[in-house]
Design brief:
The chain has 152 residues and is of the alpha+beta class. The chain contains two helices and ten strands, in the order βααβββββββββ. The strands form two sheets. Strands 1, 2, 3, 5, 8, 9 and 10 form a seven-stranded antiparallel beta sheet that branches. Strands 4-7-6 form a three-stranded antiparallel beta sheet, with no helix packed on it. A hairpin with a 4-residue loop joins β6 and β7.
Length: 152
Amino acid sequence: MLIRSASEMELILGQQRLWRRVLETLRRVAESPERIADGAARSVGDAATYRLLTPADVGSADLVRHRRYHDTFAVLDGTLTLEVAPADQLTVVSPYRDTDDTELLSGAGTVVQIGAGQMGVLAIDEAVRVVELEGRCVLWRVTVEGSRIPST
């Protein structure tokens, strides 16, 4: 799901306490991005983590699916290009590992560009590959427990 602004996120997801906390933290990060410039992951309680995307996140051969966390991409500046696909339309490369909540898949998806101030929120039945990053983007992992995203 592409969310075009923080105010749109509030309308779509703001009724849920966890997503409100994500939005509040995102506002603080956007105001002071140097707070996470060191590349370390941060957490919002035990329900969400976030970090800046790095060059190591770009250009993987495989698409990645997480079952216990929604991948959420918040572009601070520049543009992020993702490839997204329903997991059931892809081929399993590496089966799901509960230890790191990761399943690797191959195939082709839809290319999506996300611009500054926008967010991309993935459902747990979707897989993603980061194709290109020009600028800065925060990657969130938001637990599925106590959170939901409307169907797209």
